Each structure stands twice: as structure tokens, then as C-alpha cells.
Amino acid sequence: MKSLLTILALLLAAGLRAQPAARSLSPAAGRFVFGPATTLAADRELLPLARYAAPYLGCRVEERRTADGAVVLLLDPTLDLPAEGYALDIAPERILLRAPSPGGVFNGLQQLFRLLPAEVYACRGLEAGTSVACCRIDDAPRFAYRGMMLDLARTWIDAPALKRYIDLLSYHNINKLHLHLSDDEGWRIEIRSHPELAAVGGFRGGDSPVRPVYGKWDEKYGGYFTQDEMRSLIDYAALRNIEIIPEIDLPGHSRCIASVRPEIRCNYPPDTVSTNGYDYRSAWCVAREENYALLDDILGELCALFPSEYIHVGGDE
Question: Is the model's pLDDT at 213 over the cut of 80?
Fold first, then answer.
């Protein structure tokens, strides 16, 4: 009986699609065919996005507004769509993608990729003769904030892997990436006025004062991003319509920085016992005036580095 119900449920779900339906979809006759002469034509402001899309589609990039036999990217503030919306018009002679903002153009490109064979994501260009059905799609994301959080403090991920993660998020129209850059287990961003925070706190085990979570105690492992590396990641994400939001966890979850700068802790009596089992030594002492000068340095550098609207400061425990 259980197997029969499972089969019935699968049959009922066969017509469902995991992605949201477009606001408006109008099929049309014919197909646009990609070939060696197909180009990517774009406004000057959209040339970076055209160059982004070129390896996926295998097209040469040109700065112009209209062209037959081309994928044309245009900014159009007159469109009656939200800022991240787009109008994708596929005709036999050309593909026209219009949007009120570069973010909308990027979302429209992702929609175009989804209409093409999955090989488009190999980023090696389309085979000559690849075609896409003609249609008109008007769409926009339903939610302004579409985010993911990545905990880099507990598990270090280097820049190439993080860029791949950003690519995957962008394919799904995620536009916010919250990076958890500090916790008990690690400090992952260079603070130039206090380089020891990352140089020491970015590693666990071995001669590091930060104890390991897994692995051998005598092996040192971990890493951190320099500010130049993070700036490159910010730019990489921004081109893909993703804003990186940094988080430094305060005042709790700070065992790592307290291991490097033990003076940030409160002066607890030797016989202090935690009533809830938590390590009370893993928090900033909010009563120590000296701590605010260190926090000013840290947050000042983060505000200068990240163009995001928000800087996350945790706020737990």
C-alpha cells in the first residue's frame, strides 16, 4: 500500500516545476538559431555583463544598441517593471533583453540560459545550430531580498571555491550573500590595524592558541581573506547581482578573538561557574571601555571595505 501511495504521489507531482512561473509568458512561432556570426550587442554600461555572458553563449561582444543576428542587451527605464525585472523578447532574427537596471539584465540572462541546453553552464560556448524557441517573457523577482548565509568561520573556504559558490547562487537569482566571518572557531578577514586577528585567529591547531575542532591537534589548518582578496570577491559578486554582507559576531561567539586578545574578556573570579554550560570566556566584556577602541578599528575597516548597506554584528549571547 505504501509503494502504491508513493507511485501515486509521484504521478501527481510529475507536472510540477520547481521554479516560479514568469509573470507573463507569450509563446511565438519560430526559433532563434545561434551560429558563428551571432554577437552580443550592448549599451556601454552593460558591456561588463555582455563580457560575462559571452563565454556561456560563445558570442563576440559589440557596443551597439540594435542588430539582427544578435543578442541585444539594453537598459530601458521606461519599462513598467521593478528594478530587477526584465523583458526578454526572442524572435527569429534576434534576442532583445531590456531591463530598468543592470540587475534586471543579469536576471534576464539567467532566464535565457535556462531556456538553452544545460551545456550552456559549461561556459564553453554553444554549438553552432543551437536554437531557442521564440517567445516574450516579462518577469521580476517576487522578493527584494533573496539571500544565503555561508559560515566561513567554522569551515574555511578559499577564494576559488567561494567564487564557484557565488556562480551557483547567481544561477538561481540569489542577490545577497551573508558571510559569517568570525566565531569561536575562526577569524576570516584581514584587519590591517590589527593583523594578528586574522594571522593568528584564522588558523586552528598546531601552535595556534585557537584549539582545533576536528583533525589532529598538532596540525595547523585554516585561512583568511586579505582585504584585496575580499575586494576582488565583492566585485566578482556585484557583477553577478549579488551583494556581500559581512558579519563579525558580537559580543558572544568570540572565543577566537579572545584567544588572540584575551584582554577583551571580563575579569571573572577564579571560581566562576557557568550555570548554563556555555564558555563564559568566549564573549567581549561590554563594560571594558578599551574594547570599544578595538571595535571602532574593526568596524571602521569593514565599513570602508564593504559597500553593502548593512554590516552584521551578530548580537547573540
Answer: no
Total-model pTM: 0.89
How does residue 13 score in pLDDT terms, banded at 50, 70 and 90?
Answer: low
Q: Which domain holds residue 27?
A: 23-139
> What would the pLDDT profile of 153-167 be if each residue is shown by its tens digit?
999 999 999 999 999
Buried b (16+ CB within 10 A) or exposed e, 193-212: ebeebbebbbbbbeebebeb
CA torsion sign for 13, 19, 22, 27 is negative
What cell was used for 183? Answer: 566565531
**76 and 202 part of one domain:** no
Whether residue 13 lies inside any domain: the answer is no
In angstroms, how far is CA 214 from the centroid of its own chain? 27
Within 8 A by CB and 6+ apart from 92, the residues are 30, 31, 32, 33, 134
Catalytically active residues, by annotation? 183, 253, 317
